[in-house]
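[09:14] KT: can someone run the structure on this one? pasting the chain below
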Amino acid sequence: MPRSLPPSKDALTTGWVTKPVKTSPLSRRQVPPTVSAWRHWLRLSGLTLLLAGAVTVIGFSLWASVMVMLRPQPPRWLVQYWPGLTYSWGDAPVQTLAEIEAELAAQQRAAGEWMDLTQLTDHADLAGLKLLPIFETRSPCTRDCDAIVELRLYGTQPGSQSSTEDWQLLHQLAVQGPSESAVLQSLSQPDAGQLGSTYQLPLTALKSLHEAELPGAWLTLTGRRRSQGSPILYGQVLYVNPQLRRLTSVLNWQSPPGRLPTWQNIDQQGPPELLVNQSYGLEPSFKLYRVANRQAVGTHTRLEEITLTPLSLAQGQPAIAYKNALFLAQRGLWTDSQTRLSQLKTQLAADWSAELEQQWQLVALHSRYSEAQAQRDWSQPSQKLLSLLLNGEWQAALQPINAKKVGYPQAVLPLLERDLSRLWPRLTATLQINPNHREARFWHALILMVKEDEAAALKWLAQDEKSPLREEFKAIAQTVTAPPPSTIVVTATPTTNENAETAVATTTQPVWRGLLGEAIRLSTLNAAEWQRPADAQVLTLSSGQQWFTITLQSGYKDQQWQRPLTLSAGLAEQPPRQLWQTLGLGTQATLQGVDLTSGNTQTLQVMGLRWQGSQLTLLARGNTAAQPLLVTTPGLWQSANTINATGLATLLSSQPGLSDRLLPTLQNHLGFDPVSLSTTLQQQANAVPPWATARQVNLVDGSSPELMLTLSPQLLASQGLAAAGQLPTELVMTTQGELLYSSVWSGATSPLLGWIQPSSQPPVLVVNQGDRPQFLFWSPQNRRFQ
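[09:31] RB: done, structure tokens below
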């Protein structure tokens, strides 16, 4: 059957009946549902916003109230556009000077000297601001008991018609000194031998660090940590922000040579950098800081240290040379590092950045110091060798040894043993960069010989026993281990004991070139206790004489003072006359005695000796003395009273440049104001007795005399530093202003009496500690008597 087709559209409507529907027009009161919801939403949103605004206002008010209570200073962003707000923010009252002092007295504190910031800098935005250090007495305490514990920044209200003595407290900063251990970290050398505690050191003075090219005011708090050597100066750098009227501590620093931080524009670009001198002895150490965020408001202004951390450079030979140079600098080879960086600077030319220039300048600072020490004419071979080795001048240090220059070969082994920890990093760094450095390899082998033996050194140099390197080193080793020319040599063999002593005495050369000791009166003599030569005189005393026992405390041998004195066991086997010759007593067996109370000297004749283990005691006779005597080899004692003294004012006026070098050192060490001191010296130039004298003496370097200064108690009292009636202060300084000795360090109960000095060698200073001599030895590493 055929498939049926779908019905048509017209057919679908068939059978449906359409009815009319009644409609009516839309009424005005009937609102579409969508319009009503929109109005409801607007109404609800408005109420929500009003409620949120009210909550925000209330919350902000509560937050602002809490912040005002917790932080009385206005926010930085607000003060930036409204600096005067600082004066009216908070409820700090306006006070008179009397009210401020009364408030501090109630707190058992005291006000220091007001510091007017407008006198430090000409910045107009610091007008009307003053700093007030607050002191508090520490307890328990024996020295520097009054310390600064707080700094307050005061100002006058702009436009105020009140008295100039009315001040408002703008900001206060609590002050706490550094721990002793933190200060002593700058003494990184092993020979420093000092360990610090957690004891808080005091900050006792406030000084200006004004720099015209920098905004705001820069100052530093300072203190001194006194020890047997030169006192270490330490402190904090402070910054007064001119917009915020706030005081901020931005840096802690310390300086073993006692130098205040200074501003120096080392790269001649932009603002200057802050330089802190932390050098110690022969070791240079300088810290450089650049001022960061100078335009920022508030405490964002800070000091950033310029370090030797490698910067990013393009890969290749420049990057390798740059890293090698910094590696050498970090090991103390400053001169070699500067040479390499200078070559790199020429190579990079326009690509040499400001950061690289600052690193180069930092290395150059150290290099100039180290190179100057190496080029000095040192009085002792060991000092000269050490300065050359610390500067990495391996070849120059070998030359006097190979030439067998007097004193140099004998100084090598003791030097390497004593300063091994300082030289080893430098040697290994040199050989790591240049393994074939011939002279550095020889010094490395010499250290191995000191640590182990010559066989180990030869094996390290080369495995081949016939290597020219080994043969050359054998010659060096033989030179440094050969006995000194002063070794005892006996050329005759006498047949009798009496002749033996005489023959040995005439052929023995002295080993000890100088002796130090103390002679004490002996009330009862037992002749049987003492060894004496066969032909010795009878043990008798003349009228006005007495017996002394002499204890030797130090001796000069092999270009250095040995302390304490240690005598080899073989000396106990020597007959008395030979022993006296070995000790440098001469054929007459005499020593010089010095009465420290009166300054009188006399000759002590040695009559016998006594051994107790390794301790040697000498028996001598001399004139009666009530006090113990200083004893030394004849001809070595120099009394300070024998040197002509001139007035310090006369000396400074005759050499104008000397004032610029001496007065800053006196300011740093004792607290003198240079202008006030200079004025006082001129006013008291003809005072009797003189208030300040200077003696020119040759003590250390020999090239130019040092100055021995004596400052009277009256001079110190006139500067507000000490009360009249105290003992004079004795100083030894170079004409360059370097402080070598101060009686403040030693705590001596009398001025410097004199010194004991072998020919062309550094002396030993002698001061009086009660009624006993105190010896201060020269330290070439520390550049001071201690």
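[09:33] KT: thanks! Confidence is low (pLDDT under 50) at residues 9-18, 189-193, 486-508.
[09:34] RB: yep, looked fine to me
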